[in-house]
Specification:
- This protein has 298 residues and is of the alpha/beta class.
- The protein has 2 domains: 6-112 and 186-296, Rossmann fold, CATH 3.40.50; 121-180.
- 53% of the residues lie in helices and 9% in strands.
- The protein has 14 helices and 6 strands.
- The protein has helices at residues 17-27, 53-56, 75-91, 103-111, 121-130, 134-144, 146-149, 157-170, 174-180, 200-217, 219-230, 243-249, 255-280, 289-296; strands at residues 6-11, 30-34, 61-62, 95-100, 193-196, 285-287.
- The chain has a 6-stranded parallel sheet with strand order 3-2-4-1-5-6, sandwiched between helices.
- α3 crosses α4, α6 (134-144) packs across α8 (157-170) and α12 (243-249) runs antiparallel to α13.
- The radius of gyration is 21 Å and the shape is globular.
């Protein structure tokens, strides 16, 4: 397919991205790649607000229902998913729409990430020994590379392990390694980016309405199942919509307070998403939903 086209639709949570992307996918014969850090999980359907199979309307979606909640992933997972989505779309004579609220992953596709080396069993064994005391492991890395490690929390066992593996494999600090291995962009061509601009008060009402719908759909029951099946250890169990229900189980909130907290935290997330997108994506079209729909359908 020599005429392969791709574009991105971004915006705050509950801004209307999903419905617009599905509508546009039909018009331009495209598949969809979801850039959502929660929709990637199987069995997290309500808390992620992912579209149902019916709502996906026979459009092939990548980046949804890819892994189980107890399986780790990071930005490299999304790079791999993009490469897969692009390859399969071209083979199927389809275009590709990248859509989601996690702007960090889109930034990684455009700006690139450094390729990591294969980690030997010897390096993994050294890391495992060091990780017997997480704080000590963090202090060890901090002494090697304070600048880099200042951006990693001392409780982030996943990233600490990755940096230990990197050091024991290469004998380079993270900063030294990434300087020697600059990031490689996955999307080198100019990517049209469209962002949905939503008034704060309107967005707040949408979030409030969607939260109520999620509870009616069985959010509490979903979180009960997730906790019973996967415990509270996976990172996804700290996500908005899940952590508040767990606090409700603990008696920290009444049901009404739980619902209010989800709305508040989701609105705060939307504000952070908007701020990030403003700082990262300078070349984009920023318009209200209906104006974007008119442009994209013209």
């Amino acid at each position: 397919m020599t005429s392969f086209k791709q574009l991105a639709i971004i915006g705050s949570t509950a801004s209307g991205k999903t419905a617009l992307a599905i509508e546009l996918a039909h018009k331009m014969s495209a598949n969809i790649l979801s850039l959502d850090s929660l929709a990637i999980y199987k069995e997290i359907d309500i808390a992620s607000a992912k579209p149902s199979l019916k709502e996906r309307d026979n459009i092939k979606h990548f980046g949804m229902d890819e892994i189980f909640p107890n399986e780790p992933f990071d930005v490299t997972t999304f790079i791999e998913l993009y490469n897969k989505a692009k390859k399969e779309s071209i083979e199927a004579n389809k275009n590709l729409i990248i859509v989601g609220g996690t702007g960090f992953y889109l930034s990684a596709l455009i700006n690139g990430i450094s390729e990591l080396p294969s980690i030997s069993q010897e390096a993994k064994a050294k890391s495992k020994k060091q990780l017997q005391d997480l704080q000590s492991a963090y202090d060890f890395l901090y002494a090697l590379d304070a600048k880099y490690m200042s951006n990693i929390k001392s409780s982030d066992s996943y990233r600490i392990e990755k940096m230990l593996n990197l050091y024991f494999e290469t004998q380079l600090s993270p900063s030294e390694y990434f300087l020697a291995n600059p990031p490689l962009a996955s999307i080198e061509d100019n990517l049209p980016i469209y962002e949905i601009d939503v008034n704060r008060e309107v967005l707040r009402e949408r979030i409030k309405k969607r939260t109520g719908q999620m509870l009616k759909m069985g959010l509490i029951e979903e979180v009960f199942y997730l906790e019973k099946t996967y415990t509270r250890q996976p990172n996804c169990m700290k996500s908005i919509g899940i952590k508040e229900v767990l606090a409700y189980f603990d008696g920290d909130y009444s049901k009404q307070e739980m619902q209010e907290r989800i709305v508040i935290h989701t609105a705060q997330l939307a504000k952070r998403q908007k701020t990030f997108n403003k700082s990262q994506f300078k070349e984009k079209t920023l318009l209200p939903l209906e104006a974007l729909r008119t442009i994209l359908n013209s």
